[in-house]
Design a protein that fits this description.
Blueprint lengths: L1 H4 L23 H9 L1 H9 L3 E6 L4 E6 L5 E5 L17 E5 L8 E5 L20 H14 L9 H5 L15
């Protein structure tokens, strides 16, 4: 489908993606454009095997993510007040978990939406604004805590060379 070809530049070489949603809107130009505008969120989540869809929330489009335990994540820009920004490019992101056992309650685990309210609770992620990498990292962390994803490799661990006892060949010295 054309909508998947517009994901990441190296989509042919990446890990298999979770399937696209299966509903009548998938073939509409509007849904495909919204999917393209949210690909920077849906693609990393689909690489983790998570099924995603685009829906209309209260006043903006949201990404709904189905989890392996049949609960859901909702990733969205702030819904109120509405914004004139392009879908997929908000001033901040809110990530909610909708537990399976109580679909009337949501657990907010990430909120990078800016606020001018001096009484608002300090949220360290507010400095991230609309940046997606910290959002995806927060989703990974939340899902790992729930046992729904393996813990992500810490970036610092990836930068350390193998130890001399790891079986790696010794470095050649002149």
């Amino acid at each position: 489908m054309a909508v998947d070809e517009q994901g990441t530049p190296d989509a042919r070489h990446a890990a298999p993606l979770a399937p696209l949603p299966d509903h009548r809107h998938v073939n509409t130009a509007l849904w495909q454009e919204l999917w393209r505008q949210h690909a920077h969120i849906t693609t990393p989540l689909r690489e983790r095997g998570l099924k995603c869809d685009i829906e209309f929330g209260l006043s903006a489009y949201i990404v709904r993510v189905q989890l392996p335990d049949d609960s859901h994540l909702i990733v969205s820009p702030p819904q109120e007040p509405s914004s004139d920004r392009t879908p997929g490019d908000p001033e901040g992101w809110i990530a909610l978990h909708e537990p399976l056992d109580d679909q009337s309650s949501f657990v907010v685990f990430y909120d990078s939406a800016p606020t001018d309210d001096p009484r608002a609770v300090h949220r360290p992620e507010a400095r991230n604004g609309g940046s997606v990498p910290p959002l995806i990292a927060a989703i990974d962390h939340h899902l790992a805590q729930l046992g729904l994803l393996p813990p992500p490799l810490a970036p610092a661990d990836a930068l350390h060379p193998p130890s001399p006892h790891s079986g790696a060949p010794p470095a050649h010295r002149p």
